[in-house]
Write a structure and sequence with these properties.
By secondary structure, the chain is of the alpha+beta class. 37% of the residues lie in helices and 21% in strands.
Length: 608
């Protein structure tokens, strides 16, 4: 039998390694920015074209490389940071595995220009698909400039899996933001298609947060600082009233390296317990410093996950430092945190985390479509037949195309919350439920859930037909968005227009809102649009749905009337009629029940 096992050629081995290191243009941005930081640069430029698919270029004023080092940097496992295995546990720099440049050069056309301070001329190296095209001298000031062109040019299948430019650009912005936040003492500039998006000067961390994330953060930052023998916590947390539905504005850095940690996130949420709603997340940017030997950063190819030697102690100190910061800013009553964090308390934190993790794992946020056998048939026959002897509801639904709840809010209500009318069989209970009599018994309707279902189907229809009605704003409002939200908004601009949102770009990351859907209450346009983006990001992270479905869900969730809103009889009749005209009248898009039928037999049993 002939031998069949062979060594892979270096070019193919590099392409396989690139599958782990280089997943999209943002991966290239991350690796190149980290290399510039390791070089000691004080000023770094990032230049992007075609969302990184055509060009990713990073220019820095770091120490540069000699001709020999420049050539060796593209070899696999070539690094200046490791000489023995023990060095892996004493690292404070980024690119220590020596795979990044080799992997990038395997799937792109790369040009590196670099000059060390002691050299008179620089070195220019061109590589395409791991093959060196040329090596020559060039004139260059001290530092490095590396261009990565036509990513995945030699692997068309990988290139086809890249998302739209807006999606890829958002990932690039995320990576740029993380690196820029970790190093506020370094100046960063960002050019997108020859347009300068950011010009960040070396400043304090708080000023860097405002420059990157927007002026809205200026008033919500609370300083958080704690120091022990082996762990230092520094950074900022947000005031409880600024908590959002999504987890987009949360950053953990361990020894200046951005990480993702559900365990540490739980420590933050635990510290905010009782101060924010259960389904919201506070802002935080927390930098943890501890000896390198107490962590393992080489757990994941992207190095965004790490292991702590004593994670329970880190959890306890982090939670205590956040509580102290909140207390100092008079958000909560002053508490005594001058206590020892002993092992028993750590076990308490661990138990709390495990219990909550088990609870959350038992009810995940993944989307499972609701399946109801015979739903359409039942809706078409049984439910509508309930109102055969009450034609007023359907007539009311036909006459009312859009629900507006402005006039009813000013009406006085009796203590029993029963709407006086010529038809006392329909009334409102505690400004939350609509109760109406049908021939088989009675129906209880959750007014908020019902309105959400009605609006969802209306918005979904508008999106598919691209004919959403818009009302022009008499006084257009300006909204300053974060870079990520601004990019997200541009990526769904056509869908927003189809819903009825009309806006124009009004400066860097700022838009002017000129029109909103006709269903939106006047005066709430700005809050609704900001809430829509937050809800959209929340659904995008929790559910695997397309933009049309996600937008319809998000806008319905944000614009539906809330429980506690008083209704007049015509408004209740309109909700009833429109609800039973829905394709799925019994459940909200997320599966919550909109109504409950109590037939007369069940009512009778209650008194037996």
């Amino acid at each position: 039998m002939p031998d069949i096992i062979k060594l892979l050629p270096d070019a193919i081995a590099n392409q396989i390694a690139a599958g782990e290191v280089v997943q999209r243009p943002a991966s290239v941005v991350k690796e190149l920015l980290e290399n510039s930081i390791d070089s000691g640069a004080k000023s770094i430029q990032l230049i992007i074209k075609d969302a990184g698919k055509a060009l990713v270029q990073v220019v820095d004023d770091g120490k540069g490389m000699s001709p020999a080092d420049a050539r060796m940097s593209f070899e696999r496992h070539a690094t200046s940071k490791i000489t023995k295995a023990e060095d892996l546990f004493a690292l404070r720099s980024y690119g220590f595995r020596g795979e990044a440049l080799a992997s990038i050069a395997a799937v792109a056309q790369v040009e590196l220009k670099t000059r060390a301070d002691q050299d008179e001329v620089g070195t220019c190296i061109r590589i395409e698909g791991s093959e060196v095209v040329s090596v020559e001298s060039c004139a260059l000031k001290k530092g490095s400039s590396i261009q990565v062109k036509n990513l995945f040019f030699n692997i068309p299948a990988r290139r086809n899996f890249l998302k739209s430019n807006q999606v890829e650009l958002k990932h690039i912005l995320d990576e740029f933001t993380r690196v820029a936040l970790a190093y506020p003492e370094i100046g960063f500039s960002f050019y997108q298609n020859d347009i300068q998006t950011f010009n960040l000067q070396a400043k304090s961390l708080s000023e860097r947060i405002v420059d990157l994330l927007g002026n809205s953060y200026r008033e919500q930052l609370i300083t958080c600082e704690e120091q022990t023998d082996n762990l230092t916590v520094k950074g900022f947390i947000g005031k409880p009233n600024s908590a959002k539905k999504t987890r987009g504005d949360q950053f953990f850095f361990v020894n200046r390296r951005f990480i993702k940690s559900g365990y540490l996130h739980h420590a933050v949420i635990n510290a905010y317990e009782g101060l924010i709603p259960a389904d919201t997340h506070p802002f935080y940017l927390l930098m943890l410093e501890l000896p390198p030997e107490m962590i393992d950063v080489n757990v994941h190819p992207t190095k965004t996950e790490i292991k702590f030697e004593d994670e329970r102690t880190v959890y306890g100190i982090l939670a205590a430092s956040i509580r102290r910061a909140i207390s100092k800013h008079h958000v909560t009553p002053s508490l005594d945190f001058e206590i020892d964090i002993n092992i028993e308390r750590m076990m308490g934190f661990q138990s709390s985390y495990n219990n909550e993790t088990k609870s959350s794992n038992g009810n995940s946020g993944s989307y499972r479509p609701q399946q109801f056998a015979g739903e359409q048939k039942e809706r078409g026959s049984n439910w509508e037949s309930l109102y055969d002897n009450i034609p007023a509801y359907k007539e009311e639904a036909r006459q009312t195309e859009s629900l507006v709840f402005s006039s009813a809010a000013n009406q006085e209500r009796s203590s029993t919350n029963v709407v006086a009318s010529e038809n006392p069989s329909t009334f409102q209970l505690h400004n939350q439920y609509i109760i109406t009599q049908v021939k088989s018994g009675l129906v209880m309707i959750d007014q908020q859930a019902a309105h959400e279902r009605i609006l969802y189907e209306r918005f979904l229809k508008n999106l598919k037909n691209k004919n959403g009605a818009s009302q022009q704003s008499l006084f257009p409002q300006q909204l300053e968005l974060s870079p990520g939200d601004f990019t997200l908004m541009l990526s769904i601009e056509h869908e927003l227009n189809a819903l009825g949102f009309m806006f124009s770009v009004f400066g860097t990351h700022t838009i002017q809102l000129n029109g909103t859907p006709s269903e939106v209450t006047e005066g709430e346009e700005k809050e609704l649009f900001e809430g829509l983006l937050e809800q959209f990001k929340h659904f995008k992270s929790e559910l695997k749905l397309d933009n049309t479905e996600t937008l319809a869900r998000s806008l319905a969730k944000r614009s539906c009337m809330k429980s506690g809103h008083p209704l007049a009889l015509p408004e209740m009749n309109a909700i009833i009629g429109q609800l039973f005209s829905c394709d799925n009248s019994r459940y909200t898009p997320s599966g919550k029940t909109t109504m409950v039928l109590l037939d007369i037999e069940k009512v009778t049993q209650l008194f037996s």
